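Lecture 7 notes: from sequence to structure.

We start with a single chain of 203 residues. Read the sequence below before looking at the structure.
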Amino acid sequence: MPFKKSSFPWLLLCAGLALASAVHAEKGDRQQPMNVEADALRYDDLKQVSIFTGNVVLTRGTIVIKGARIEVRQDPQGYQFGVVTAAEGKRATFRQKRDGEDEFVEGESETIEYDGRADVFKLIKNAQLRRLRGTQVSDVVTGNVIQYNSLTDVFTVDGGSQQGTPQGGGRVRATLTPRSAAPATANPALPLRSEDGVGGGRK
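Now the structure, written as tokens:
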């Protein structure tokens, strides 16, 4: 995740936030097959599109993505792309292990777009991205749209201007904990979930 081991340099510009890190996503995930479980499947061989619906769980190595509906397409080069949508009033989720660390990155939003070629997650609407050390939440960012590149370990956050967006619509919020400090505690304005909560939608 985009965080330094000793400090957290960050840039806030025009309601956008970007951070960089020396810790990388699990390297083996790119070589792993994509597996999906769901209640129903519709597959279009001509278009190379699969639509899974009903309690969908997508896994690829250490990546776990959950939602009510996932549309997966494959390009001619074999790269896979997914669009995950949550059930009404809930949020879709994703989780990925950090390479060589007992750390995880997890996020949630009403829609998640996953680019298998670039290893980019785009969290759209009511989005939150967290880093966990073990099971303890350490760093949190929220905004209207969050784009996270697990290869370059850079993410950007757009606060947006949508009225009624939870957690201070139109503003980016970040809680960043130094490595030497204790993990961040839950903030009423930033509802957090530990490992056991990942995957269940929340209003």
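Residues 10-187 form a domain with the lipopolysaccharide transport protein A fold fold (CATH 2.60.450.10). Keep this in mind for problem set 3.
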